Amino acid sequence: MILDHNRMIVEVQVQRKDGTWRKALLWVDTGNPDFMLSEQLARDLGLAPPAEDGKPSDAAPSDVDVVEAPAVRFGGKDLRVDSVRTTVIFRRPWLFNTMHVDANLPSTVLMHYQVVFDYPQRMVTIGDPGSVEHRGLRAPAVVNPRTGIVQLDALVGRDSLSLALDNGASYSFVSAAVFDRLVEDHPEWPCSVGAVGCANIWGWWPGEPDYPITRLPEITWGSIPLAQVGLVGLPDIFRGGASLSAFYSQKAARAVDGFLGPNAFKAFCVEIDYPEGAVYFEKGPEVDPHDLDLVGLTLRPEADGGYSVIGVIQRGGRPAVEGVETGDTLLRIGDLTVAGATMGTVIDALRGRPGEVRMLVLGRQGKEIRVEAAVHRFL
Q1: Angle at CA 265, nearest 5°, toward 263 and 267?
Q2: Which CATH number fits domain 136-283: 2.40.70.10, 2.40.10.10, 3.10.20.90, 1.25.40.10?
Q3: CA 227, 230, 236, 240 torsion: positive or negative?
Q4: Is residue 171 packed enough to be buried (19+ CB in 10 Å), middle (13-18) or exposed (0-12)?
């Protein structure tokens, strides 16, 4: 698999309505029960009406449910897609442009199998129940039999939280109320404001430039100790006026406080045995905990493949990057042309050691502006 912006991307084969097969790139998404197809993939499969000449895709009336999911093969294995809600996404082309993918691989497909996410080896394994030998420490998990959402209880200091396992996200998130309670109880934890790095999850979620972030020295998830986990607090008004906890709990077996994303377990080989209701963790080499050492910009991927600046992070009461304004278009980072690059590629180009400088070229009102931007350690 490819790891881009912390998200796992795998190659599969998807069947067209005429019976032929085509390759497709899917991002593995344990936190979403819906099979979401890009407009381009759906049209090629014959699952969406032809585009009208001169009509932009974002003018489509709405996302469209597909009656029957297309057949999917992973490594030559036919995956079960029965009873999976399948939707063609018209209004969010950035959802797929960000990673250069065609669709997601949802929890409702994965839930029939033993699935291994080997982050150190960059491998994904999907096997029938009982066919995969367990490795590492076992943690009992709660799996919603309807959606396949996995959750484990966590201990943070004296605080007990229920957190879903969501490797379809790019980072770890809890609701604002939970976040505020945690940092109030632990004033010694480092904190920052503004989504940078992989905490900059999509750029289209409300309030990303103002997201608070902290780093937990340790969290025990099930029976597994996880160290130096970055955690973001999402605003109480998240989707449809609901908090993250309320929104996410609708698809979990019981109430959750948030979810842990790949930043929490990139040093592990993680197996989810869905039928058994357990998660296994095998520790690999340590990973660099300084995932938020970079130029302090919050970005938004646009439908045309470009990236806009939606926030400049404050540091010591001043912008961490002088000369960049909200609304600028990021054109180049050093020798990297940003337009058409994946979000992971763009964020990685902003990374470095604190004190290093990245040359940014930005577009503003038809002019190009050059800015020397320093790398900072935000947490």
Answers
A1: 105
A2: 2.40.70.10
A3: negative
A4: buried
Architecture of domain 293-377: Roll (2.30)
Contact by Cβ (8 Å): 226, 165: no
Closest CA to 8 of 164, 169, 152: 169
Q: How does pLDDT run across 286-317, given as a tens digit for each residue?
A: 888 899 999 999 999 998 999 999 999 999 88
Centre a 10 Å sphere on the Cβ of residue 82 and count the other Cβ atoms it contains: 9
Residue type, 162: S
Query: In which residue are the tokens 């003018």 written?
Result: 59
**DSSP string of 179-197?**
HHHHHHH-TTS-EEES--G
Q: Give yes or no for residue 238 having a pLDDT over 80.
A: no
Residue 153 and residue 142: Cα distance in Å, rounded?
9
SS3 of residue 114 by DSSP: strand
Range 2-110: architecture per CATH: Beta Barrel (2.40)
pTM for the predicted model, two decimal places: 0.93
pLDDT tens-digit map of 2-43? 999 999 999 999 999 999 999 999 999 999 999 999 999 999
Cα–Cα distance measured from residue 136 to residue 138, given in angstroms and rounded to the nearest whole number: 7
Alpha carbon distance 262, 265 (integer Å): 5
